[in-house]
Each structure stands twice: as C-alpha cells, then as structure tokens.
Design goal:
The protein is of the alpha/beta class. The protein is built from 12 helices and 17 strands. The structure holds flavin-adenine dinucleotide.
C-alpha cells in the first residue's frame, strides 16, 4: 500500500442528517468509520424547512437536546386555493436544523467515528483481487485523500456523487425549494401548507413557525427559475407583506438579506441503492416523501438500515452486492409506496384551483383521526357537490394527504 493513504472500514460521504446518523450507527456497531463533509462546517447553508414529527423522533430513538429544538408544533394545516383549510394534527418539532445536524455528527464522533470537514469526494475506483471486489480507492479534495474503504455509504444528498461517478442511476428529476426567515409571524402552533398553484407550480408554500416569532416562509415548485420571484409575490400578496425579513442566525446579520434553500429529488427511490461495497441513503437514494417532499425522517431511517447492513457484512467478511442486498430489502419493507403516493400527487395537481377548493370543502376540519365513516362522508359530499371529480382520480388525490402523515414518513 502506498504511503499517505487513509484507511477505514466505512466511508460516509456527506454529513447531513443521513450521513451523521450512518456514521453514528456504524461507529456504535464497532466499525472504523470516517465521515467526510464537503463544506467547512456542518449544516449550513440550511436547505430544509426544519420540521420533524414526534413519531419520527421516537421511530429513530432520538433524544433531542434542547438547543436543537426551535419550537413545539401541533401538526399541519393544509390551506386550499380559496382559503378553506383542514388540519392533520400530530405533534412534532421545528428544529434549528444546522444545530441538529451538528449534534448528530458530534454523537457520531463520541461513538468513535472520525469527522473530516472540507473533504469532497470526486473519484471512486473499484479494487479487485482475483476478480473479486475488495475495497474502494477514493480520491478527492482534502488532506486525507486518497482514502481506501471497504464500504461507502453515500449520503451526499441530491448531489448523489456515487451514482454520478459510477453511472449507477440516472440523474433524478428535482424540484426547487426556497424560503425566507420572517419576523413576528402570527401562529397557533401549526405548520401552514398552502396548496396554491398560482405561486407554486406542482408544489406548495409554507409557513413553518420557529421560536421568538421567527418563521420559515417558503415554497417548493417545479418552476425552478421562477422560485424566488413567486415566493416574493406570495409574501407581497398575503398578510406576510407587513412583516420584516432577516437573515437566519447561521448567516451574518449584516449580509444582504437572502433566501435559502436547495433542490429535492422527486423521481422516487433509485433503481440501484446498493452495489459491491456501496449503499446509497437519504436524498442520494431518492428517498423523499412525494406530496410535501420531507426527507429527514427517511434519510435518518435509511442510515440506520445501511449501518446495520454494513456491520453484518463486514463482520462476515462479505461486502459484495449480494451481501448488501439486505439493505434494499430493509427499506422496501419499511418505506411507503412511492408510486402510489406520486399517482395521488399527480391527480391532485391535475385539478383546477376551483376543484381543489371543492375537495378541501368536503374534508372535515380535522383529518388525523378519520375512520371509515369519515372517509365515506367525504365521498358522499363530493358525490353531491361535484360528481365529475371522480373521473379526475380524486380518490388517489385525497389518499395522498393521508400518506403525508408521520407514520408514512411524511415528516
Ligand atoms: C427548501 C427545502 C425545505 C425542506 N424542508 C424539509 C422539512 O421541513 N422536513 C424534512 O424532513 N425535509 C425537508 N426537506 C428535505 C430535507 O432537507 C432532505 O431530505 C434531507 O436534508 C436529506 O438528508 P441527507 O442527509 O440525505 O442529505 P443532505 O442533507 O443534502 O446532506 C448531504 C451532505 O453531503 C454533502 N456532500 C455532497 N456532495 C459531497 C461530496 N462529493 N463529498 C463530501 N460531501 C458531500 C453536502 O454538503 C451535504 O452536507 C427540505 C428540502 C428543501 C430543499
């Protein structure tokens, strides 16, 4: 082996929520883990609305420290184009997401993982002995390169660096997300999600309340070029226009006030989420929730599955694709049916504003504990008000809301 080569059993690429959790659980399983992050610090710029449900927190066994929590919230209120609203009550948190990601990475370090910032993976080469895969030779920007790792867990987010370098999956379709931090925002403790296609094409807008009257006001839209202009028009034309904007706490307050955001993959889980010595997790695997595009819960859970799989594979001495095929089996058994929810989302965006509002008016004010009788009641109301909507696949559109709940990894 040439001098100056860094060796580890597991190389985790990207220290977002997925990468931090993968490093944490791999280290806890006793593996020799290196976590690298392209940026000089973890979690910034924030590219997230920052909410996570109680159910996710308990599903992931997280004991959130106070400093990462910005606000307790009671659930989601969906607002339709005519202002009709309905609630999906289920409690959760709005986080200071950059502090949350730093906390997870610190936990990973405490468990024995090595964290290296300002390290960007740019090349991977398979090493084989007698025709059998043995490890990866990784190159990139940063002092620790080249790095040799038996398993790579790719948590590089929408960049999907390993899919790109190895031509493993096509580039996913993405949707743009953008938000501003706004001050003195009135709230009753719900996340407000506005399905208003006028401003957010095939997406939605949000008001996500934080502590001290702060809130993230943002949108996701398929019109990537128009995202900033449309968000500003929404703020200008609603009660938010009276309120001031500021830079979020992780950005210099003296800097020009700017929005912050990113892109979110919306093609669904990639065809190939594993290969010899490789697993893709979180956004890098295409794991996002189709209707409201949340991805943190999915990233954190897929990280646990990948770490468990890595531990078993390394201890058995078999890191082949066949051995790592346990990983896709785990996530497929657990994650909700993307295709089915996507069908519902497409049906929803096929409706006119007026039809969406009629649908909203047929919903009860509270949707979280709707049983069979509640659903039947909605069906009857629709049949009376606009029976033609049944031909526009209204049922899958309505079901998509149910799938936005925490138990289906909606948030
Ligand atoms: C505007 C917006 C709002 C959102 N709101 C929510 C929300 O409220 N709730 C929710 O659950 N989800 C939300 N999401 C989605 C959520 O942010 C992502 O699903 C989640 O961050 C995915 O986590 P991850 O660890 O897979 O990837 P990421 O968080 O994207 O982390 C990837 C990391 O990898 C690093 N990296 C990339 N390439 C390399 C490389 N070559 N070498 C080294 N490091 C690399 C990046 O710098 C980054 O730190 C939102 C997304 C956007 C854009």
């Amino acid at each position: 082996m040439a001098e100056g080569v860094t060796r580890c059993e597991v190389l985790v690429v990207g220290a977002g929520p997925g990468g931090g959790a993968a490093a944490l659980h791999s280290a806890r399983a006793g593996l020799n883990v290196l976590l690298i992050e392209d940026h000089p610090e973890i979690g910034t710029p924030v590219h997230c609305g920052e909410c996570i449900s109680d159910l996710a927190v308990s599903n992931l066994n997280l004991e959130l420290p106070d400093e990462v929590i910005s606000k307790r919230v009671d659930g989601i209120r969906v607002v339709f184009p005519d202002g009709t609203d309905t609630k999906l009550s289920e409690p959760g948190y709005v986080l200071e997401k950059h502090l949350f990601e730093r906390w997870i990475a610190n936990e990973a370090e405490n468990a024995g993982a090595k964290l290296q910032l300002s390290h960007k993976l740019t090349g991977v080469e398979r090493i084989e002995v007698d025709g059998k895969f043995t490890e990866w030779h990784c190159t990139g920007k940063g002092d620790l390169f080249p790095i040799r790792a038996q398993i790579i867990i790719d948590a590089s987010g929408v960049a999907g660096v390993c899919s790109k370098l190895l031509d493993l999956n096509p580039r996913p379709k993405v949707i743009a997300g953008m938000q501003y931090e706004v001050l003195d925002v009135p709230t009753d403790g719900y996340l407000d999600f506005y399905i208003w296609p006028e401003y957010a094409k095939k997406g939605y807008l949000w008001m996500i309340p934080k502590c001290d009257g702060r809130a993230n006001i943002g949108l996701v839209t398929e019109d990537r070029k128009g995202a900033v202009k449309d968000l500003e028009a929404f703020i200008e034309n609603t009660h938010f226009s009276e309120l001031g904007k500021q830079n979020p706490p992780w950005r210099e307050s003296s800097d020009k006030i700017r929005g912050f955001g990113g892109t979110i993959p919306i093609s669904g889980p990639h065809e190939n989420t594993h290969a010899d010595g490789l697993m893709l997790i979180g956004d890098a695997a295409g794991f996002t929730s189709p209707l409201f595009e949340g991805g943190s819960h999915l990233a954190l859970k897929s990280a646990i599955f990948a770490a468990e799989t890595a531990a078993i594979a390394i201890s058995s001495g078999d890191i082949s694709a066949a051995s790592l095929s346990a990983y896709p089996r785990l996530w497929k058994a657990e994650f909700p049916p993307y295709g089915k929810i996507l069908k519902g989302k497409n049906a929803l965006y096929n409706l006119t504003d007026d039809e969406m509002s009629i649908m909203g008016r047929c919903f009860p004010k509270e949707m979280s504990d709707m049983g069979i009788s509640g659903k039947t009641m909605i069906g009857l109301r629709l049949a009376i008000r606009r029976p033609s909507l049944y031909f526009k696949k209204i049922i899958p559109a309505m079901l998509a809301f149910g799938y936005s709940r925490a138990k289906y990894y909606g948030w």
